[in-house]
Design brief:
Helix content: 25-40%
Oligomer: single chain
Shape: globular
Strand order of the largest sheet: 3-2-1-4-5-6
Order of helices and strands: EHHHEHEHEHEHEHEHEEEEEHH
Distance between the termini: 47 Å
Length: 300
C-alpha cells in the first residue's frame, strides 16, 4: 500500500514544498516553471519521468499559510488535495513533510503532528539550540517519529570513498564553506563533515567568529585531534558548498552540485523508516549538529 504524505510549507526562499512533492508525484512542467525557484524546474527536467519518482509513496495533501499558495504548489506537483486547515491534512495522511526551514517555527508546526502520532520529516535545521531540539524530542511518542537532516548528508559528492580515505591517510583538518546565512545553511556543511569523522569521535572545543550578512565561522576540535572549520559566507555570497579534506598523505576538494539526488536519497530514507518503523535519523547525531549550530550562533 502506498504511503500517503502531507506537505506543510512554505517559508521564505525555500522551494522544498515544490521539489520534494515532485520527487514523489512527478510534476507539471508548465506550472512548475512558475514556482519562483528557477533551479527546481531545471534539475527536474534533467531527470527521466516517471522513473525518477520515489515509488510506494505519494504526496496527497498540501497545506500552507494561504489557499492560493497551496493550490499553486498542488498544480505544479500534482497534489490531489489542498487542505484548508492543518487538522484536515493530518486526518488524511500517514506521515508529514514539514517543508519549512525557519527553525523558529518548527515546534509550532510539528507539535500537532507529533501529538497525532504521525511520523514527521522536519526540514533543516531542526532547531537552532539544544533547548529547541529538546522541546521537539520531548513531544516524540516513539523512537524514530522525528526525522530530520540536511540532504547534503546524502550527497555522494560530499562523501569520502574507501579509496579516498586510503589516498588521504589519517584525517587532520576539514574545511567546509557554504553561501548564505549561518542559521539556515551551516547545517549543509556540518552534517557531511560529521559523517567523515570516526564513529564515536566527540567534540573537545569550539571557537566562533562573527561574519557579515548573517554569516559566521566556527572552528571545532575533536578528541581524535581532527580540526574542522565551518564557514557560512553570508546572504549575499555566491560561494559554492564545498569541503576541503586534508590528511597525512594528501588533500581532496569536494563540491556539491546534484540537488535532485541528494533530496531523493533523504526522502527515500524517511519513507523507508516510516515503512519499517525504524530510527533513520539518530537523535545523538542531530544533537551534535544542533550543538555546533548553536555554538556558531554565539557570535553570529
Amino acid at each position: 500500500m502506498s504511503i500517503k504524505l502531507g506537505v506543510i510549507g512554505m517559508s521564505k526562499g525555500n522551494g522544498h514544498p515544490y521539489s520534494w512533492s515532485a520527487i514523489f508525484n512527478g510534476y507539471s512542467p508548465g506550472n512548475m516553471r512558475d514556482c519562483g525557484f528557477p533551479v527546481i524546474p531545471q534539475y527536474l527536467a534533467q531527470q527521466k519521468w516517471p522513473e525518477a519518482r520515489i515509488s510506494g509513496a505519494n504526496v496527497t495533501h498540501v497545506w500552507t499559510q494561504t489557499p492560493e499558495l497551496s493550490r499553486k504548489i498542488a498544480a505544479a506537483a500534482l497534489i490531489e488535495h489542498v487542505a484548508l486547515h492543518p487538522t484536515q491534512l493530518l486526518s488524511g495522511v500517514d506521515a508529514v513533510l514539514l517543508a519549512r526551514d525557519d527553525a523558529e517555527q518548527h515546534l509550532a508546526f510539528a507539535e500537532p503532528v507529533l501529538k497525532a502520532g504521525l511520523p514527521i520529516y522536519i526540514d533543516k535545521p531542526i532547531a537552532l539550540s539544544l533547548r529547541g531540539l529538546d522541546a521537539l524530542y520531548g513531544l516524540e511518542q516513539y523512537p524514530g517519529q522525528i526525522f530530520t537532516c540536511s540532504a547534503m548528508r546524502y550527497s555522494s559528492e560530499l562523501m569520502l570513498s574507501p579509496a579516498d580515505r586510503e589516498e588521504l591517510g589519517e584525517l587532520c583538518e576539514i574545511h567546509a564553506i557554504t553561501p548564505k546565512s549561518w542559521d539556515k545553511y551551516a547545517v549543509h556543511i556540518i552534517e557531511p563533515v560529521l559523517r567523515m569523522l570516526q564513529p564515536g569521535d566527540t567534540l573537545a572545543k569550539t571557537t566562533s567568529a562573527q561574519g557579515q550578512d548573517r554569516g559566521a565561522a566556527l572552528s571545532a576540535t575533536w578528541k581524535s585531534g581532527v580540526i574542522t572549520r565551518f564557514v557560512a559566507t553570508g546572504e549575499n555570497s555566491t560561494a559554492p558548498i564545498a569541503i576541503r579534506v586534508i590528511g597525512t598523505k594528501g588533500w581532496k576538494d569536494l563540491f556539491f552540485h546534484d540537488s535532485f539526488n541528494a533530496f531523493k536519497q533523504a526522502l527515500q530514507d524517511f519513507v523507508d523508516g516510516v515503512r519499517s518503523q525504524t530510527v533513520q535519523s539518530p537523535p545523538a547525531f542531530n544533537r551534535t549538529v544542533v550543538s555546533l549550530i548553536e555554538a556558531g550562533r554565539s557570535q553570529a
